[in-house]
Structure formats: C-alpha cells, structure tokens
Design brief:
- Residues 1-28 form the signal peptide.
- It is found in: Membrane.
- Residues 32-73 form the Leucine-rich repeat-containing N-terminal plant-type domain.
- By secondary structure, the protein is mainly β.
- The protein is 9% helix and 23% strand.
- The chain has three helices and 24 strands.
- It has an eleven-stranded mixed β-sheet with strand order 1-2-4-6-8-10-12-14-16-18-20. The chain has a five-stranded parallel β-sheet with strand order 9-11-13-15-17, with no helix packed on it. The protein has a three-stranded parallel β-sheet with strand order 3-5-7.
- The chain starts with 5 loop residues before the first helix and ends in an 8-residue tail after the last strand.
Amino acid sequence: MRIQSVTWFFSIIITLTILCFIITPVHSQCLEDQKSLLLQLKNGLQFDPDSSAKLVNWTQSNDCCQWNGVTCDHFGRVIGLDLNTESISGGTGVVTIRVLNLQNNNLTGNITGTFPKCCALRTLDLSENLLEGHVPKSLANCANAEVLNLGINNIYGTFPCFLANLSRLRVLVLRSNKFQGNISCRGIHNNIWPNLQIIDLALNNFSGILPPKFFLQRKGMMDGTNAKSDHFSNNNFKGEIPDTVGDLKSLYVLNLSHNSLTGSIPSSVGNLTQLGSLDLSWNKLDGSIPVTLARLTFLAVLNLSYDQLVGMIPRGPQLQTFLETSFIGNKGLWGAPLTPCCKEVEPTTPTVDGRQSNTDEDGIN
C-alpha cells in the first residue's frame, strides 16, 4: 500500500518519539507498541520486496530491535531507522528519533509536519530523493542535530539561517536543489555552527557575496584532524574570496568553481596547509597567483583554469607537478607547466621563499 498522506507518516514517527519519553522500563527487547507502529509504517510504504533487504524482513514474529535498519536503546525503544536504498516511493514526513536515513529512495512531496521541542534527532539523511518544498522551520527544535543531508532533491527556498542555533551541527549538505538568495544570515551575530566541518551548497542558485564572518565563525574548521570540506561550486556567488578563508586551518577540500567571483586569490589560502583539493576555476578571478600557494605541499587536485589570472606561475615543490589543464584559459598566465612566454626579456619569477629568481636562462651571458 502506498502512502497517501505525508502527515500520516509523520504521525507514526512522532508517536514513536512520544512513547520513547513516557515509557522507560528496563527492557532488552523491542517494546510491543513500538513494533506495532513500525509495522504500520512498513504497511504504509510502497517498496519493491524483491530488492528490499530491510523492510521485507520486518515481521510480527521477530524482535523489532533485531530488524535490519532498526536501532534500539537498552530500554527497547526505537532510536534509529536506516532505510537507505530500499526503493521506497511515495511521500514522507520528518522524524524525531535520533537517526533517520532514507537516502536514495523515491520519496516525493514536501517535508511536512512539525518537529516537537523535545526533538532528539541527531542525523537526518533524506538525500537522493524527489522531495520538494521548503526546509521546515521546526527543524530548529532539534538542538542536538549533528548531520543534516538534504542533497539531490528539488527543495527550494532561501538559505536556512533559522537553523543557526544548531550548535552541534557538523555536516550540512544542501547540494543539487533549488535554493536561492544569499547566505549572509543578517542579524545573527553569534558563532554560527561552531562545530561545522563539512558544508556542501553546490549546484543551487545561491547568490551574493561569500560573507567573511561565515568562514571566520566556524571554529570546527580551524583545528582537528578529520577531513573537512567546503563546496560552493555551481552557484551565482560574486565579489571577492574573503581573506578569512585562510582561518580554516584543517580544510581539506575547497571548491568555489563555476561562480562569478572577482578580485585576486587571497594570499591567506597559503595558510591552508592541509588542503588536498583546490578548485577556483570558471570564475573571473584576476591578478597573479599568490606566492603563498606554492607552500601547499599536500595538494592532489588543483584547478585554476578559465579565470583571468596573469603573470608567471610561482615556483615551488608542488605547482609545477600539475598538468597544464590546471591553468589553461588564463590568457595572461605563463610559466611551467604552461608553454613558456615568448618575450625576449622575461621578468623575474616569484618563488615559495619570497625571493626572486630569473628564468631558465639564468647564468647565460
């Protein structure tokens, strides 16, 4: 049977959550009322039994805490559902248990309903579906949320500044939707998402400048050893790249490609000593490549192509190891690995240590 109302799905999960709060016996097996609600949920979903590895095995005779995709606490209360890649179709409502993974299904409709103030959600993954509408503002009630992945849907609206109070948020993925507008979050002066380590806004219609405070305030990107990434590509951002991007000491991936960014590449990028991938291509960046960029010895991916950069590529232990495709499309740019400039007198070349060196003809009288 197919879901006929997203609100119905929502009510099942909300009921599960309420029961989690009012029933607290010490119990190692699934509570019967929780099992009943999960079976109602299963019966209300349309899925392909032949390709299902989880829902198809949910039966009345088994302990629901042993069902694949279900997580229980030591009281027998359901605290997590992982139904990714179950070929579920129809609509969905939001949930307020601790973990919900509905990635890669065929869910349609809006994310409806209201997250209660007692929301215990920590992970919500609704990515790779066909969901529409706005991000519900009641999601701000889930103060313990750490992972929010709404990527690859048809969700629209503006940047969810109303989630700024989610101080534990570590991962925010909104890529490949229909969001628009700026990401400045005006009027919010507190430390927005201090623990945020991964943000992916790629493939939307965001516009305006990249606000300096947006990078400065995310202290979770300034220390630690876990790989961290910023993806802002394929939007309509304009203006300069803020110097504050250099404060994100642990950043591993920075992708600002396919926007309308102008100005020069900030020298502070050289402070990102753990950076492994940098893509600033297909913008309107001008000026020379900063010498500090040659300090980045961990770069495995570099793309500065199709901007308006000029001058000689700085020499260092890393930059000359990339193919010329990393630099093509900049008419005023030259030096290895590009074809050498054909001027009779070549200018001096900036190097990583800040000194000036001559070209390959050094020492020839």
